[in-house]
Amino acid sequence: MLTKEDKLKMYHYLVLTRTFEDWIFYICHNQDQKNPMVIGKGYLSTGQEAISVGASYAMQENDWMAPSHRDVGAHLLRGMSMKDLLLQYMGREGSPTKGRDGNVHLGKSELKSLAFISHMGAMTAPANGVAFAMKYKGEKNAVISFYGDGAAQQGIVHEALNYAAVQKLPVVFVINNNRWAISTPVSTQTSVENLADRAVGYGMPSSICEGNNVYEVYDHVASALDRARAGEGPSMVECKSMRMSGHGTYDMAKYVPEEEFEEWKKKDPIKWAERILKEEGLADDAYFEKVKADIKEQLNKDIAEAVKHEQVRPGPQELADVYAE
Ligand SMILES: Cc1ncc(C[n+]2csc(CCOP(=O)(O)OP(=O)(O)O)c2C)c(N)n1
Ligand SMILES: [Mg+2]
Q1: pTM for this structure?
Q2: What is the atom index within ligand 1 of the atom nearest the CA of 69?
Q3: DSSP letter string, 108-163
Q4: What is the mean pLDDT of the chain?
Q5: Strand 180-181 vs strand 184-185: parallel, antiparallel, or unpaired?
Q6: From ligand 1's centre to the CA of 147, what distance in Å?
Q7: Pocket test for ligand 1, best of 72, 103, 120, 255 (most atoms within 8 A of CB)
Q8: Whose CA is nearest to atom 11 of ligand 1?
Q9: 259 Cα distance to chain centroid
Q10: What are the residue boundaries of the structural domains of the chain, listed by start?
Q11: Confidence class for position 246, pLDDT limits 50, 70, 90
């Protein structure tokens, strides 16, 4: 059962993720393109933050996750600092990838998150690897493997799901079905109504949840993780949501029908959480405004610090641990 403290904490992380990514969007569109602060582009989870926040909130300390590129909320919740994220986006030496990779291609083994690799769906295989090791060692932990509706069509995902089911691995496959894979709608990617319908073919249970209701995402993923930790094998949770921005900050998503955005705006995860918190008498508008203002203030401080202290871009010395002697 989620306590009041849990619910407010999850709300905080929704707002934190949104505020950070809104800033990334702003900078990508307003920075000096000849001397950019953010290297590359932003890949944002705007409008679907409840998936990564709700799912990762259900993790225990020794669980691992294999994030996708829309899981900044999960990175933050697992303890990634704002400074780490900022330096990563800025391609600086002090970032989790030491400036060798950019934006959302990151993870930190100290935080039990595998570093995200760009090949869609490919994170399901190392997620299985970690789960296999847990099972082999007799540990009662589990892994969340996050991936999108587009990634769900990759061959490696089908193999990984089959393998996880056959080996009864402690993995929860959390699908972020945000209806689009770049400019391809989900309706032209697959002939099944729900991606979760495939679970039966792999021999694992599945459930479908409102991906924009952070507390519902939590409930579904928490049950699936409990099941995995109890040795009952993998399961799949399909989170129905919508990518409320372009694929990256360079993409204004002109190919998405305006009505689709309008429809999903009504299901905004932050507003949804606010509605629930109000209905349950746990918080009011003044509280929400304060959370938003405090986060903005803290973010401004973190940005100033990151910019002041970490101007170093990686040089050849940073490659030293890439190659064996
Ligand atoms: C194997 C592979 N094919 C193509 C790409 C290019 N690509 C990057 S993201 C993306 C769309 C992914 O869509 P989805 O899995 O639905 O995730 P979303 O971006 O919607 O969260 C594609 C095609 C890639 N990175 N890897
Ligand atoms: Mg998608």
Answers
A1: 0.96
A2: 21
A3: BGGGTBPPP-SSTTTTHHHHHHHHHHHHHHT----EEEEEETTGGGSHHHHHHHHH
A4: 95
A5: antiparallel
A6: 9
A7: 120
A8: 181
A9: 26
A10: 4-319
A11: very high
Residue nearest to atom 4 of ligand 1 (CA): 120
* Distance from Cα 137 to the centre of ligand 1, integer Å: 33
Q: Minimum-distance ligand to the CA of 152? A: 1
The letter for the amino acid at 141 is N
CATH of 4-319, picked from 3.30.420.40, 3.30.1300.10, 3.40.50.970, 1.20.120.50, is: 3.40.50.970
Task: Indicate which atom in ligand 1 lies nearest the CA of residue 186.
Answer: 16
Q: Following DSSP, what letter does each residue of 51-104 receive, concatenated?
A: HHHHHHHT--TT-EEE--TT-HHHHHHTT--HHHHHHHHHT-TTSTTTTSS-TT
Q: What is the pLDDT of residues 257-289, one digit of tens each?
A: 999 999 999 999 999 999 999 999 999 999 999
Pocket of ligand 1 (CB under 6 A): 70, 118-120, 148-151, 154, 176, 178, 180-182, 243, 247
